[in-house]
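Fig. S4 source data, part A: sequence.
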Amino acid sequence: MAKTTSSRTTTAAGRRRAADACVIEMSATRLCTFRSSRTTTTGVLEMGRPTFPIIARRRGSFLPPGRLLGVGALAALLYAGGVGAYEPHVNYMLHCMGCHTPDGRGEPGRVPSVRDTLVPLASKPAGRRFLIQVPGSAQSRLSDSDLADVLNWMVDNLSAVPSKRPVQKFTAAEVAAYRHQPLVAVKAERRRLIAGEP
């Protein structure tokens, strides 16, 4: 004879079977907790190394107001070139050598050689102004003092033409006076200066 059970008992028995199935299924599931998020994976082993969350800061300053002055002073010092300054030959490598090559010979037809023209140009006021105003010099990120040092280093080390008398050294004040006046016709101005025209 069939035994009859109440609806409550049938439902409870059904839940028990579902719970048993869930327990069997859960034994293959591992709960992985990382600092960045809680996730449940199925059968995948945890990572051997710890992971860390990537947290984006809110817009605006992350420093307390009292520390902003110190950061501003450090930024001004870096911008002034005190901390990030390099020797002139290193600045030449970083800012000039890509076009003018290590020995200053340039690339025929594209970039003029500075080997034969540095001393003659640096010996005349108009030539000195030209060397400061060429786009590579005038638009470089070097400070006026660093640019003057690089130009002096180039005259001393890259020139193939010996100077009959010592060439006057470039100064930061001289660079500052000419660098912000744009030179438009670079090739024509260079030809004119090399030909010795006034």
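Fig. S4 source data, part B ends here. The first strand starts at residue 29 and ends at 33.
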